[in-house]
Amino acid sequence: MLAGKHILLIIGGGIAAFKSLDLIRRLRERGAEVTPVITKAGQEFVTPLSASGLAANKVYTDLFDLTDEAEMGHIELSRAADLVVVAPATADLLGKMAGGLANDLASTLLMATDKRVLVAPAMNVRMWEHPACQRNVETLKGDGVLFVGPNEGAMACGEFGPGRMSEPLEIVSAVEAALMDGPLKGKHVLVTSGPTHEPIDPVRYIANRSSGAQGTALGSALAALGADVTFVTGPADVPPPDGVNVVKVQSAQEMLKAVKAALPADAAVFAAAVADWRVASASNSKIKKDAKGSLPVLKFAENPDILATVSQMKKGRPPLVVGFAAETDDVMANATAKRARKGCDWIVANDVSPETGIMGGTENAVTLISEGGADVWPRMGKDDVARQLAARIADALVQ
Ligand code: C5P
Questions:
Q1: What pLDDT is attached to residue 353?
Q2: Which of 59, 159, 297, 381 lies 20 to 30 Å from 311 when distance is taken between CA atoms?
Q3: By the 8 A CB rule, do 241 and 203 touch?
Q4: What is the pLDDT of residues 160-181, one digit of tens each?
């Protein structure tokens, strides 16, 4: 994907710098040439030797190194790149960029470049939320600087909130999106989202509790990576994302029909909270309250399992099928069993017991279960979960 592209990677001084070594590896795996530049503070966290070894390239650290300047001056260094990536971008680096300061090699390169700049901020939550930092972020966005993250979650300093640097694969996706049309360009991804409503009569229904927030964030994140998204949604609380092909349905049976009609797809993600049962024979007219107080008896029929149906298709099964598993207990065991039973490739498992506050909230804590095992993600915003999952999907589809 990145063959022939040259990335100038500026590594700032933050604990997240260790992830930048993995980032170098991931970028090179995709064919990019990486030239690392490490700030003075960055060298407290990673050594030029490690970065140089992984990049198989010279590492630059000093503005006033005559040997470096003789080889490639800082102006040339900044111009030779196709993209400048700053990861981790500390509060200090963002401040320098926004203020136009150039007092070391990194900040001078950032001033001298005429290429796009992508920053992956990483800092303590209060530093990120400080009005000065937010002012700088606004200024930089206005200057056309691209941002990836920060993510929300537990931080090395023991606090919780936005400030964690994006994961290397998310940064890779953002690099690909900045340099080309997006890693998922030309890929068709199907997403189901929201609850389904199963009619009892024309005015009443049964449903699962689901806001549609996670599925919507996912549709948005996949579209941002260039995917052609078909978004099959039940009646959700949140509006569908922009830039996707929306198919609105009510019931599970309608959802299955819409899903089948949307195939073939390169990947299908089933985030909808589909009702397991429907009322066997819904009434065409409103069921009247009985004057004598006798209660209606509802008979249920089982709904089709859309995820299992698609996972087990003999012909036309999408190469990557992802299910969700909302559990209230034994999350890992139940989700692992569910992956096997349904036949999907990945299960995104989460604990929705009331004390987690996840149901209907803005955060999620998921474990991604695949053939390779379980990957526990820290608690983070549903948008961040969506972006990380979209990056994983892009990684799996674009090899
Ligand atoms: O079986 P359970 O509902 O816990 O499984 C959850 C996963 O299966 C989700 O990905 C959900 O979208 C999908 N599902 C489905 N059709 C059903 C029930 C669940 O696609 N009828």
A1: 82
A2: 381
A3: no
A4: 888 999 999 999 999 998 887 7
Mean pLDDT, residues 346-360:
84
How many A from CA of 348 to the centre of ligand 1?
11
* Ligand 1 binding pocket includes 305 (Cβ within 6 Å): yes
Q: Which among 361, 88, 337 is positioned nearest to 213, based on CA atoms?
A: 361
Which residues are tagged catalytic?
Answer: 157
- CB-CB contact of 380 with 362 (8 Å): no
Reduced to 3 states (helix: H, G, I; strand: E, B; else coil), residue 292 is coil
User: Element (H or E) spanning 279, and its range?
Assistant: strand 277-279
Domain 188-397 belongs to what topology?
Answer: Rossmann fold (3.40.50)
pTM exceeding the 0.85 threshold for the entire prediction: no
β-strand partners of 230:
190, 245
Q: Per residue in 275-310, pLDDT tens?
A: 999 999 999 999 998 888 889 999 999 999 999 999
Q: How many CA atoms lie within 13 A of 14 on its CB side?
A: 27
Report CA(210)–ligand 1 centroid distance (Å). 12
* Domain-wise residue ranges, the chain: 6-179, 188-397
The fold for domain 6-179 equals: Rossmann fold (3.40.50)
Q: Give dist(CA 268, CA 219) in Å, integer.
A: 11
